[in-house]
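@channel sequence for tomorrow's demo:
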Amino acid sequence: MKRWAAVLVGGALAPGAADGAAQAAPEKAFAEAVTALERGAFDDAIDRLESLADSGFSHPDASFNRAVAYVERARSENARPGDLGRAVAALEETLLARPGDAEAERALEQVRGEIARRRAREGAEPVVAKTSLPRAVVGLFPEGVWALLAALGSLSSSVGLALRWLSSSDRRRLAASTAASIGGALLVSCGALALTARHFRVASRPAVVVASDARLLDEAGKPLVQKGGEPEHLSMPEGASLFVHERNNELLGVEWGTTRAWVQAAQVRVIGNDG
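structure tokens (generated this afternoon):
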């Protein structure tokens, strides 16, 4: 996607006066990666951008450019398995750092579409995991919104109870009781959703499959076997989004839709992590 390379951003990484020395090295490495990408040296650009990520450097522009490099290499004669999956991971990383980035959202849609087309050409069926109900409900709003709604519910309940105690009119007491009840329900429901969202954030990390297919395994590392209709899936396709819960040596305990299983760590890239 040559169109992407034309919108690379370097100025956003310019060092400030206070910490210019500390930022000089990553800024130089980023500029060299951009130069390599512009001249079509995709392997070089990927190596430099991956080194930046491994060093702990994080910036949405760097993640976006890494996605560009992987997509361009995937379309070249030097393509490697998992390039498009790594592009998806880089774009997910971009959106995690800069939510609402329209360019990254369009690019992500294009890359996922290309993965689907390639699977179709190879005769592989499209695989889509159903999102678990708790994650689907919690995902309707950010964690902060649920917490804000819970706080509003608490305020409404408190004010309603106070007005009910202070009012002498039956009509006002009824209205105050109604407000307190609605506020209490909002507090309980949205508070529970805020706590669930926090649990998901703390107990799991988003990740993406960066292999052509990632075989689902049991805790012993053996392939899952379909018994009595379970599990629903036996492998995850390239570019699939999942959540990592734990690590056991070279295995990761993952959640993909409603499926819980293990997978080889090398086949998954954790978003926001250096690996």
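heads up for whoever presents: Residues 174 and 219 are 57 Å apart (CA to CA).
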